[in-house]
Design a protein that fits this description.
The complex is a heterodimer of chains A (215) and B (379). Chain A contains 11 helices and 2 strands; from the N terminus they run αααααβααααβαα. By secondary structure, chain A is an all-alpha fold. Chain A has a two-stranded parallel sheet. Chain B is mostly helical and 379 residues long. Chain B contains 19 helices and 2 strands. A two-stranded antiparallel sheet of chain B has the order 1-2. Chain B starts with a helix and ends with a helix. The chains are: A mainly alpha (215), B mainly alpha (379).
């Protein structure tokens, strides 16, 4: 849902980390996302296609278009080579601005580690040659610019383009906690998919309770 | 004589010791601590926070941006933010109460002096560090003590919308599942008790679901309930049973009945053995039909077993977890024990989760007490 909200010029939280889903632009994006399921009836949850996640639904040819990331590539190549050979990848359609998400990961050394030097050596490997292996074999995007430049796999270029304007998958909260808010908002999205509540009701509930969900 | 009695008792306890000890460690102790935690804001991730070791010199170098040798000259101009140092560079999260203590009693002048003298370049546990530099109340930083909140957790849960939703779901679940699974178990038992060919095979078939891993069963039912699954094909519907908020819980109920009915069938099979054949013979001579025999003889005589199954079934249903954990994605459809799990292990609110668990315990205790009363009337 977040790419749609961003694409309409909105955001989940504003720069003060206050929830901003009911800002006019965010609301338009939110509405569009729900409409895909309820009004236009083109969007489905992957379980509706009898699949555990969207990659599987696509591989089984039960979904024509999916919204996913490069982690899907290795899976499709291995499990559904036929589909992999005939599919195409494009950037997310945009409303007022281009939008997509990146899921970033990092390596860290625990401050309690008793082998900091060895850990440092391992980390040096992981961000250079190690990353190269991940990029070549597992389909992830190279975050190291040199490795990214060497990655000429044509199917991945769209994802590299997307990285220029992508939003990292992380909702900033003052406490750093988001899991409860995530559950609560997702529950409302499901209610919206099944027309149990209206968008205004959902937004009202979210606005009223958001602060208590991130404590 | 008396000595022998004591000796015998000692031997008895010695034999029972393994089970007594393990019950104390694995049952009584957790129950007691959960009871205590339910009045606190206990967070298991913080237990060790005062035992973490760090190097004060490195931490100060990072915080101030100076090496100890440089500091001697610039001591007067240094802008040392104590709270920032404690929270970020020492890595100790403080609640309001402790922040006030640190602001009042932490001897930062002495710390900076020791720093410029180069005395700090060794690993030290946070508790010892705080003990050294707090002029007063250093003992407050020795051991993690959850804050005692009295009944705050219980007040909070009364206001928590999802506590009521999940509790309501658990009640709804039990109210539907317990009667149906009990009746079904009786019917299965009567069928398995009859003298038809291949009855052993049927007994095994009925019993297998209850000994199969619930993860495996959940996977199979996930496929059965999915949109292109068997159920939709049989009935020509197109419902996403586990995701539609109105059908998710009933779908789990059906699956739960199917898995547990066979298990309780065994209890009723044992009960059926105790009903004397003469009663059935008498009924037959009086011209009672099969159905009348079932309702007027079998069911009344199975009453103790029915009550036992009702009690254990209710306890099991109020605590149903695994199938919800595997199959339910929407928190609107979760039951109370999954709500406890979410709070304890996903939201990091162990104290609150303990409070909910205590409430659940009291509810089950009350239900069981009511059911027990019925049994007493019988005997």
């Amino acid at each position: 849902m977040i790419p749609f909200i961003n694409s309409f010029g909105g955001s989940v939280v504003d720069s003060n980390m206050k929830v901003s889903l009911s800002q006019p632009n965010s609301k338009k994006g939110f509405q569009f996302y729900i409409d895909l399921v309820t009004k236009y009836k083109v969007g489905y949850e992957s379980s509706a296609a009898g699949a555990g996640w969207e990659g599987e639904a696509f591989g089984k040819e039960n979904a024509a278009v999916i919204m996913s990331g490069p982690w899907c590539l290795g899976f499709l190549k291995g499990s559904y080579p036929n589909v992999y050979n005939k599919m195409g990848i494009v950037e997310m359609p945009k409303n007022v601005k281009k939008s997509t998400m990146v899921y970033t990961v990092c390596w860290a050394i625990n401050r309690q580690s008793s082998n900091k030097d060895a850990a440092w050596e391992a980390m040096k490997f992981l961000v250079t040659e190690g990353q190269q292996i991940f990029v070549e074999k597992a389909g992830v995007l190279g975050s190291n610019k040199n490795i990214a430049a060497k990655d000429t796999d044509p199917v991945k270029q769209v994802f590299y383009k997307g990285a220029d304007y992508a939003t990292p998958w992380k909702i900033a909260t003052p406490t750093g906690l988001f899991s409860k808010a995530n559950d609560q908002i997702n529950s409302r999205i499901k209610d919206l998919f099944y027309n149990k509540i209206t968008l205004d009701e959902a937004l009202k509930q979210i606005n009223e309770n958001y602060d208590s969900w991130i404590k | 004589m008396k000595k022998r009695v004591v000796q015998e008792a000692m031997v008895g306890y010695l034999f029972a010791a393994p089970i007594i000890i393990s019950i104390c460690i694995f049952t009584l102790y957790p129950i007691l601590s959960a009871f205590i935690y339910s009045f606190t804001d206990f967070n298991p991730l913080e237990i060790k926070k005062f035992d973490i070791k760090f190097n004060p010199q490195e931490a100060l170098e990072i915080n101030t941006g100076f090496l100890p040798s440089e500091l001697t000259e610039k001591e007067s101009s240094i802008d040392f933010d104590l709270m920032n140092f404690i929270e970020l560079d020492v890595g100790l999260k403080l609640d309001e109460e402790k922040s006030v203590l640190v602001q009042k009693y932490f001897d930062s002048v002495r710390l900076l002096k020791d720093f410029s003298d180069g005395k700090l370049d060794k690993e030290i546990a946070i508790k010892d560090f705080m003990g050294t530099y707090m002029t007063k109340y250093g003992d407050q930083f020795r051991k993690y003590k959850p804050k005692f909140l009295w009944f705050d957790n219980f007040v909070e849960l009364l206001k928590d919308q999802y506590f009521w939703i999940s509790l309501g779901n658990a009640f709804f679940f039990s109210l539907i599942v317990v009667p149906i699974q009990t009746l079904l178990a009786v019917i299965l038992a009567v069928a398995a008790n009859s003298k038809i060919k291949g009855v052993k095979f049927y007994k095994a078939v009925f019993f297998i679901p209850s000994i199969t891993s619930s993860a495996a069963i959940s996977m199979i039912f996930w496929m059965i309930y999915s949109k292109p699954g068997v159920i939709n094909r049989l009935f020509g519907t197109s419902i996403d049973w586990l995701n539609e908020p109105n059908t998710a819980l009933p779908a789990i109920m059906l699956m739960n009945i199917w898995t547990t009915a066979g298990y309780f069938m065994v209890t009723f099979l044992a009960g059926l053995q105790d009903i004397p054949d003469s009663i059935y013979e008498a009924a037959e001579i009086d011209g009672a039909s099969g159905l009348t025999t079932f309702w007027k003889i079998t069911m009344p005589l199975l009453r103790p077993q029915i009550l036992f199954v009702a009690i254990t079934g209710t306890i099991g249903c109020m605590q149903v977890f695994d199938q919800i954990y595997f199959l339910i994605k929407n928190i609107r459809n979760i039951t109370i024990s999954f709500f406890i799990y979410k709070n304890a292990f996903e939201y990091g609110k162990m104290g609150y989760a303990s409070a909910v668990a205590l409430v659940l315990f009291l509810i089950i205790l009350a239900i069981t007490a009511v059911q027990r009363k019925y049994i007493k009337d019988e005997y």
